[in-house]
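Fold this complex.
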Amino acid sequence: MQTQTYMAEIARIVALSLGISLSAVLLAALIGLPLGAAIAVGRFPGRRTLIVLLNALMGLPPVVVGLLVYLLLSRAGPLGELGLLFTPQAMVIAQTILVLPIIAALCRQSVEDAWVEYEEQLRSLGAHGFHAALTLVWDIRFSLVTAVLAGLGRALAEVGAVIIVGGNIDGVTRVMTTTIALETSKGDLPLALSLGFILIALIILLNAAAHLIKEAAQRRYG
Amino acid sequence: MSAAHGILPLSLREVRFAAGGRNLIDGVSTEIVAGPATVILGANGAGKSVLMRLMHGLLQPTSGKIAWRGQGEERVRRGQAMVFQRPVLLRRSALANILYALELARVPAAGREAQAMDALREVGLAEVAHRPARVLSGGEQQRLALARAWALHPEVLFLDEPTANLDPGATREIENVIKAFDASGTKIVMSTHNLGQARRLGDEVLFIHEGRLAERAPVDQFFARPASPEAAAFVRGELPWV
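Structure:
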């Protein structure tokens, strides 16, 4: 009985973790992939500065993101009325902000490399600007899996942002990393360790799957 | 497409293109007219590819003027197509690659597939229409690039050393396709450093030497009696870097 509730609790925590991080990565990909592609193909003033900034933001400290989102969502903050603080939605927002620069910056690099190869042909066919960027993104979609995966790894592994905006509330906003942090400080090392193993196993599994997809696609599409 | 409504002739006046402090194209003035297949001949690095990109509008001249016979920018752009030395194909089926080009050219959706299949048949690739383009052989990929250009029904087709990376068999196939395009009335403008190919496909030769137009002549005359010493040396195969 004891073990059963223990396993159920672990399952719930893992599910919440995956739900939050996958949602955040999905949102970040929807914004970040077109954004990265647009920066790669576009020519506008301040482009180089933007690229440097974007690359720098890849190393954004999660606690700082957490703090900013906390200020934004706290009762007195500009978005306080939404009542999102200490909810899974707040955690999704924080992780989206954290992951967005990673996906956008890696996508920008990949698309720019491809642009060198495709530019003349696409311009000759009459593809310009955003349309050309979308063509490139679609054509290198299997390489972009890596960018999205890097974002997912970051989201699943971070603790600083979700613990601040989620509050680590048992059964509501407690995810793998925040549980590990809490249980370790409480001395429940077995729970912390098993969650740690699950986390690492998940990340390996996701990467292996992505690798296989990419390989299969390479064989299929060249 | 009758010449009366076309975008030709294309005229170049004192066209210069500089990059890295060097004049890659230096004062070229000439006119490309409808009709004869034009071969731009010259050694590697003479400026053939740059000249062709200037004509096609992929590069802007540093000075001088390149003008089509009026008709408006959009009309001029759609009146021409280009096939590059190395074909750039999208990661989708052969057919979808052509459909993509037709969509960009705003061909109505209803007619696209038939038009694309016609082009594939034209180059002998109908049976691989649904195969991914990037897994085709090098020769097939270049034929697909030709079909993609062909499907657009351009008035002028630019070909930048289209067989430079291909084996003799694939080269022969590509040359046959180019001949068919020429016979159908498409204006061919092709660069090559291959003398045999220039003879086989060309009606007139523009000989480029170090960024300058050294000589322009009908193909028979060019090979029989080259007027400039550079062209004579090139035809005899004496230019050291050929």
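The two ends of chain A are 53 Å apart (CA to CA).
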